[in-house]
Amino acid sequence: MSNFWKLTPVIALTTAVALVLAGVLMALYIERSYKAQKIDEVGVQAAILASTVAAALVFGDHEAAQEYVDALRVNPEVRTAAVFDASGTLFASYRRSPEARLPAQAEAPGTRVAGDRLIVVASVRQGDAAFGTVYVETVTEPFTRRLERYGVIALLVTMAVVVVAVLGVAQSALGNANAELAHRASDLATANENLQAQIAEREKVEEALRQAQKMEAIGQLTGGVAHDFNNLLQVILGNLGAAQRRLQRDSATGGGEVLRHVEAAIGGGERAATLTQRLLAFSRRQPLAPKPLDVNRLVSGMTDLLHRTLGEAIDIETVLAGDLWRTSADANQLENSLLNLAVNAKHAMLQGGRLRLETANARLDATYAALHEEVQPGDYVVIAVTDTGTGMTKDVLTKAFEPFFTTKDFGQGTGLGLSQVYGFMKQSGGHAKIYSEPGHGTTVNLYLPRLTAAEPAAPTGAAALRASPAGAADELILVVEDDPGVRAFSVQMLRELGYSVIEAANAEAALDSLRRSPGVRLLFTDVGLPGGVNGRQLAERARWLRPGLRILYTTGYAGGPIVHRGRLDPGVELIGKPFSYFDLATRVRAVLERDI
Fold first, then answer.
1. 503: which strand partners?
2. Beta strands of 388-519 (E only): which ranges?
3. How distant is the alpha carbon of residue 393 from its chain centre?
4. 422 with 279: CB under 8 angstroms?
């Protein structure tokens, strides 16, 4: 027994050494697991970025690609990120600090660790086709900081030291050791709380990323559908319009029943076009033409329209702020948004009520911005639309801006009204907020950024309308459209308006026509053309041949070379598909008469 007590220090020391070795092995295992986890995380981020920028690389949309890359700023560990096209040229990039560096050319796909940097390069692919690569560089947590989380290992070593110390010290030493253990336990509890907070923050960021991906997927689907759908509607509505005009001219000889059928078909086609436009607005893919705007004048000018739309059962009240700041926005889209809100309010006030439109100046501070996604602190012009209707429950309020969500009966609404308002406000750099309680009505606040530049406000309403006189035979227009139906309809309408017209199906044929026909005054071209030369590139080459040539674009999907950050490039004239006879006449005349 005495020999046992003699061997106790040796046993204790051996145990302590074994625990230390176990702790070291555990630390090495944790370190290896940490690196593997970081590689997986960054690899997932790179894969997500590669999938989201594929469409942008295909369409050459630098601005969309830049938005996806900038979305990585929510992850503080991302130091640099970039998108390279198929030729290895830098397409879009993001750097957290000026000192951060990016490779000049695309690197081979793979993963590598350089000091405290973890770099992942992933291919952007669709099927077997490769469109480029994405580059993501993150900063790993310093090893010295990770040592702080190895408290368990340190605790095991401390316990081994305590076991050895117990053999040579008194009860007081054991008490001191217990105090030390309690202190370490408190540190571990604090570290655990911090870890839980980090996990919660990461889950929040991941949820925001999933939501962004969902919205992006809807936007891509919308854009693809809208392009073809608007071309089809252009042919349908255009020919119906031509039939309507012919029947109206021949009404004296009969055809009244046929005319009513044609007008009903036109009404259905226009509703389909409106639905497509709302989808584009929600997905932030409609072309905006923002101009300096007097919001008070716009709201005042809508009063008569709102009275006709809402009926006599609803009182309309406007409260316009004095010295209201100016803003920059697309006046037509803002009017559509206010009209959507008014129609929603009408459905909430079936027994009548009051609709109040109020303008004010407001400042959103950093605290408010931190609680609302994509909101920037600063000065805003506010339009508050308040009704005395039934209000919304909390569950309905959280889904109000989602596309296709509606509380109306089946067939009574598309569920795109509020989502169109939300998309327009976000695309305009603004913010939309709903306040509502069941039985106490609803208020929707629209925040538009304050405009500080000294530019005159754009006219709105009736003041913005232009005359649409017919053309003349000596005014020659070149129509470039790859869709035969749309091209035939456009040529027919322009000739009906009195213009001389030649046509082409692609950019190469259009340039040949320009060389043969020196009298062409206007190039009317689709943005998306086959053959590798889009409408914007065609216009640039045409202007090189004819410096004074007028250009009018058309498209069924507002993306690509003439729209950046959701706004038309300066000086671009665009008429969206499907366009009417009156719209085409007005825009062509305006472009021809505009000074260059």
1. 479
2. 431-436, 442-451, 476-480, 500-504
3. 27
4. no
> Whose structure tokens read 């499907």?
578
Task: Tokens for 10, please give them.
Answer: 């040796």
Rounded distance between C-alpha atoms, residue 194 and residue 185, angstroms: 14
Q: Which residues contact 275 (CB under 8 A, 6 or more apart)?
A: 414, 416
**pLDDT tens column, 406-453:** 555 444 444 445 767 777 777 777 888 888 888 888 888 899 898 876
pTM above 0.70, yes or no: no
Q: Is 34 helix (H, G, I), strand (E, B) or coil?
A: helix
Spatial distance between the Cα atoms of 424 and 373, rounded to a whole number of angstroms: 15
Query: Rounded CA gap, 177 and 171, in Å?
Result: 10
Rounded Cα distance, 549 and 594, in Å: 11
- Residue 547 contacts by C-beta under 8 Å, 6 or more apart in sequence? none
> 75 near 49, Cβ under 8 Å?
no
For the record, the structure tokens of 526 come out as 């689709």
Residue spans of alpha helices (H) in 349-483: 366-371, 394-399, 417-427
Structure tokens at 95: 């750097």
Distance CA 43, CA 227 (A): 34
